[in-house]
Amino acid sequence: MEIPSTTPKTVEEIFKDYTARRAALVRALAHDVDEFYGLCDPDKENLCLYGHPNETWEVVLPVEEVPPELPEPALGINFARDGMNRKDWLSLVAVHSDSWLLSVAFYLGARLNRNERKRLFSLMNDLPTVFEVVTERKPAKEKHSVDSGSRSQGSAKRSNDGQVKSNPKHAEQSCEEDVDEHSETLCGSCGENYSADEFWIGCDICERWYHGKCVRITPAKADSIKQYKCPSCSMKKGRQ
């Protein structure tokens, strides 16, 4: 397993490590599926799926060091491949991957205090799990979630006439309240927090929010989109 050159210690550093490893696992299980499937040969020895801090993934034998420097992912994911439905097998690997991500994060955060651990979990919990991405299951919405009737400045969403609109500047009196309300909103791609001075766009299908730069959508391009679908939802349509 690839060990960070500098061990993450703060909540922000650990969360950054978590999002990078998560992105790698999502890529393996939702984007590079055929390659990942081919590498998990049941005739090989016990294999593990690793997500690295540089957002790359790897299917290899477990580390030989005992005890390992970091918690290890599920062992022998390749053995069940041919004995299960492909989607069910991928979902099973995704569940084990989520468990591994949490174990690594809280191993790194062992010296955090109670409030810091709570904040770390809150940040991680705001992102869809690998299982939710792989199975295309929408996370349950909570009351404080961003809704279509309360969009902050700098974000874009479709109106009833089908046009992409940004919040009008005349809503300045509520801008501070919106920023506070949405400060915990995270980009569905990079996992970074909401920022009112950046362009964001919301998916009309899953209602997740993204930095425009993360999904390569500019404000000008957004104006010509009647219904925006994020990369994940676009892939879902393609498979159907």
Order of helices and strands: HHEEHHHEEHEEHH
Radius of gyration based on Cα positions = 20 Å
The proportion of residues in beta strands is 5-15%
* Secondary structure category: alpha+beta
What is the strand arrangement across the widest sheet?
4-3-5-6
Shape: globular
The low-confidence parts are 143-156, 158-171
What is the mean pLDDT?
Answer: 81
Summarize the main sheet. 4 strands, mixed
Q: In angstroms, what separates the terminal alpha carbons?
A: 35 Å
In total, how many beta strands? 6
Number of helices: 8
The helix content is 25-40%
Features:
38% helix; two-stranded antiparallel sheet; alpha+beta; four-stranded mixed β-sheet; 8 helices; 240 residues
Topology of helices and strands:
Elements lengths: L10 H21 L1 H7 L8 E4 L5 E4 L25 H23 L5 H12 L4 H6 L19 E4 L5 E3 L8 H8 L17 E3 L6 E3 L7 H4 L8 H9 L1
Parallel strand pairs: 3-5
Antiparallel strand pairs: 1-2, 3-4, 5-6
Put the structure in a nutshell:
This protein has 240 residues and is an alpha+beta fold.
What does this protein structure show overall?
With 240 residues, the protein is α+β, with helices and mostly antiparallel strands. It has helices spanning 11-31, 33-39, 86-108, 114-125, 130-135, 175-182, 219-222, 231-239; strands at residues 48-51, 57-60, 155-158, 164-166, 200-202, 209-211. The protein has a four-stranded mixed sheet with strand order 4-3-5-6, with no helix packed on it. Strands 1-2 form a two-stranded antiparallel ribbon. The radius of gyration is 20 Å and the shape is globular. The model is unreliable at 143-156 and 158-171 (pLDDT under 50).
